Amino acid sequence: MLKQFADWLAFSTIGLIPGSRAGEALDFFIYDTIKIFLLLITIIFVVAIIRTSFPPERTKRMLSHKREYVGNALAALLGIVTPFCSCSAVPLFIGFVESGVPLGVTFSFLISSPMVNEVALIMLWGLFGWKIALIYVGTGLLVAIVAGIIIGKLKMERYVQDYVWEMRVGNAEIVQQTFREKIGYARQYTIGLLKKIWPYVVVGVGLGAFIHGYVPADFLARWAGRDNFFAVPVAVALGVPLYSNAAGVIPIVHALMEKGMAIGTVLAFMMAVTALSLPEAIILSNVLKKPLLATFFGIVATAIVIVGYLFNAIL
Amino acid sequence: MKIEVLGTGCAKCKNLYENTKKALEESGKSAEVIKVEDIPSIMKHGVISTPALVIDGQVKFSGKVASVAEIMGLLS
pLDDT tier at A289 (50, 70, 90 boundaries)? Predict the structure, then answer.
């Protein structure tokens, strides 16, 4: 139905020719922009309400003193529903560690939180279908859990900045919100988030539309297709220092995939962009000494590369 | 009344600070508003998600930027 509207607007009303580059690009742009915004509004709002039940302080209590494995899995799952802003990464890390949340478990949370979020899910679902979205969530959680377990086993506690262990954290009571307050928060959060990401969505879809219309099919197949052995590590290496929210990166990645980029490479690139970034490294260097920071990035990057190869082989 | 806005200096924390000052103005009350940016002080309140608002030592909320109206509600 949406496709018909887009077709009508691009071809009948504006008068571009179906099959022409400009026509196809605009058609893609109209269709995708509207679809994505509709999905975003609905799901961001619903997830925001769910999130009001999982303030970081409650997550901290749930994870405190949990054993490995169970703790890592729980942390990764909670990372999806706990609202987490990277500006809060330092207090959050200190709070978790000081309350007895094991280091590896804390890392599982830090990995899944930015990577597995509802914006990424909606965009993937909207552009690639629910199977891919589900795979992304599943492997994202797996990467968070496994990487967290490995880091825990390496016993690198001494590479956390010393002052963290000496910090005294008070115990704030968790403020309960009434249902009306939750709706109010969800509304405010949704509007705020949309205001922040809409330019990225528009630019991302725009670029995707351009690639869709103007770049010849299979253009990338030679360089970034399944047979190029180096595509995955290169994609991850490019993605690690970059930061983008999911809204911006997925439309581009969608169009790239249409032109022949293999899906494993695509997923790996997305994970690398969202899970790790240069700004995050700078923020975390306040609480982690270089060896631990490097280990964290190294293990997560490796896990993502493996995921990339795996999906290129299976899908 | 002593009001503290906890935050490590990102845009959200600045917004909360501005909204708090506006709320005070509009409610006609007078109080000192302090921006607390150092981690040890923030953590002493038990806050792990910034920005947060503390009135007379009690954490009113954390992890969001409240609107001027909402803050005014808390001031009364």
Answer: very high
